[in-house]
Every structure is written in structure tokens, then in C-alpha cells.
Amino acid sequence: MKHVLITGGAGFIGSNFIQFILDSRPDLERLVNLDLLTYAGNLENLKAVERDSRYRFVKGDIRDRDLVERLFADYDFDTVVHFAAESHVDRSIVEPEVFLTTNIIGTQTLLDAAKRHWKQFPDDKYSRAYREGVRYLQVSTDEVYGALGETGLFCESTPLAPNSPYSASKASGDMIVRAYYQTYGLPANITRCSNNYGPYQFPEKLIPLMIHNAREDRPLPVYGDGMQIRDWLHVRDHCSAISAVLERGTAGEVYNIGGNNERANIEIIRLILRELGKPESLITYVKDRPGHDRRYAIDNTKITGELGWKPLYTFEQGMRETIQWYLTHADWIGRVISGDYRAYYQEMYGAIERP
Ligand code: NAD
Ligand code: TYD
After folding, report:
1. Helix H or strand E encompassing 57
2. Tens digit of pLDDT for each residue in 289-308?
């Protein structure tokens, strides 16, 4: 792993991962972050690494075949970690199309470039020989499995049954990755992670939204009865799991990632209110999300048993740190909410031409 392409590195998990991998892999020589800077991409998340000589930012679209091909030719990637996506379920309900093009066609564009550049005999359609040490990692979600009832866990063999346009587009991306492994032998992995929390999450998602609203004494909108369950994982534990799959994962395998932290939404909202010393009267029950998945929960025995990965954060410690982070970064949230974070790109990179 010397020359790495990260897609979507200006988003929540991608920016945490870039920081994590630059810190933990001194042997890494070049890391290119390809990000379109949609509303969810924020280069302020990467201030700490932008002067690292190994790091390079490229503003561009994963659906742009010419650009992706050129980046492979210029940087000779041996590793791709594909985070870029439209990622918010509520947006996918209102505007599904961009989820399909980004999450499906964007994935195929990257796979095609990886196959072309990594195959030892690109013109031989029967050859399954690839350059030594190359790996494509598709960052996916537990939402592709659909919803659970009160019991049971998602394991890697659980049939895919996505319920939202977001999860359907992610499941489609996963299917294409599987097909490129089965048909062409492309050395690929898929990771399916549960809900992440931690620093730099866009405040349209549950935890940063609730912290922000509580801090400002605004109503906290709880969908339906608030008893939907998610299995929460600290973003840094997600980063270490991806790193473990890159280092030790078997090509063609899927790995579920989760930290055994099932919590009902209302429980999390009450915890945030307690930590901030705010009244429960801020809780406001609103109409439920259409097709709202009731419960997600991950069986993580494959990644813990086969790769020796385990999460380091307890939910209590992770949430305390996360709440503190958002409280001490109120200026970051303020710029995201006002849209001023977009000015940062202009200031930092406005004069730089696309390669
Ligand atoms: P995010 O929405 O915070 O960031 C997505 C990033 O992708 C942004 O920087 C955006 O600018 C970029 N992007 C979007 N479309 C692009 C395009 N066409 N070309 C290039 N860049 C583009 O998302 P996130 O929460 O960081 O999630 C990252 C990945 O992890 C996604 O694939 C998501 O499905 C998956 N995932 C997220 C969670 C979670 O809890 N957030 C859980 C499991 C899996
Ligand atoms: P979200 O952070 O959007 O993640 P996902 O839908 O991918 O799980 O939502 C997490 C849970 O919180 C989900 O059950 C929906 C619920 N939710 C609310 O009740 N109110 C809100 O304002 C938001 C954004 C989410």
C-alpha cells in the first residue's frame, strides 16, 4: 500500500480515514483524495493534513471516466478505498436519481479503471492475473440488508433487502463489486458498517443534529416513536477496521463492521440532553420517515475472529468525546450550517487547475 486513491475524502468518514491512515502508515508514499465537494464535502475537515507532502486533493467526480483514468495513469495507485457516495437516507427519499448515478455508476467507473490498470494482461479477457498487492475496497453499509425485527443480527450471508433509495443504490454498488471479483478476479473487498458517530459528521445526521439543536435550545425532531434501533460505532473504530481489511482481508470477501452498541434513537437523544444539561421538553415527535427501517444490528464475529480487529471505544466514552468535540467546534458547525465552509475551497484551492 504505497499509492492510495481515496474517494470522498472530504466527507465525514473519508476525512477521518485520511487522517488515520497518514498517521498510522509511514510507508504510504502518495494519497490522492478525489472528491466532488458536494454539499457534504468540506475541506476544512482536512486542515491538519493538507500540508503533508504525501497528500494531494483533486476536485472531481467519480463518474468522470477520463479524470479517473488519468489519475490512475498519473499516480499508479495500488489501493483504492471508495467512500464517495450520496449518503443521507432522507435526501434519497426526496431526490433518488443522484444516489443511483453516484453510488452505482461512480462505483463502476472506479472498478473499470482499477481493472484496466491492475490487470497483468489487460487484453486477455480470460486472464485473472493482477499486479501483486493491489486492492479495491468498497465502503458499504449494513443498510443493504434491510431491517431486523426485535431479534437477530446481520451477518455477511444475510440476503440483501434494501428499503430506501439510498440503501438500494449501495446494494447495487456492492453487487457490481461482487461481479467484478467473480467475473474478472479483481482483488476487491466490501465492508458493511453500522451507523458511525464522531467528529466532522454533517449535521443532517442524528447525533450532530441533536447536539446542535439542543445547544441552541431548538426542538429535537424525533421520527415516529423514537424506538428505532441503530448499532453505533465510533468513526475511528471504523477506520481501524478498514485498515485491518486492507492489510489482512481475503480478496473477494465481505466483512461486516460493528461494535455491539445497539441503542434506540430516543435513548441517544436523552443522553445528549443530559450531557448538555438541557430539558426533555425540547424533544418533539414528528411524522415518521417513509419506509423507516426499525432495527439494524451487526454480527461482527467474522472481522473480529478472522482479522483480529476489535473496537476500542465504549459508546459512553465515544459519545462523551463526540459531544465535547461538537461543543468546542461550534464554529465548524456554524460554517457548515451557514454554507460558509464552501468558501474554504475557493480560498485554498481556487487558483489550482484540475489535473
Ligand atoms: P458523507 O456524505 O459525509 O461524504 C460523502 C463524500 O463523498 C463527500 O465529501 C462528497 O463531496 C463526496 N462525493 C459525493 N458524490 C461524489 C462524486 N460523484 N464524486 C466524488 N465525490 C463525491 O458520507 P460519509 O458518512 O462519510 O460516508 C462515507 C461512506 O461510508 C459512504 O459510502 C457511506 O455509504 C458509507 N457508510 C456511512 C455510514 C455512516 O454512518 N455515515 C455508515 C456505513 C457506511
Ligand atoms: P441518520 O443519522 O439519518 O442515519 P440512518 O438513517 O442512515 O440510520 O438517522 C439515524 C436514526 O435517527 C434513524 O432511525 C432516523 C432517526 N432520525 C430522527 O429520529 N430524527 C432526525 O432528525 C434524524 C436526522 C434522524
Report:
1. strand 55-59
2. 999 999 999 999 999 999 99
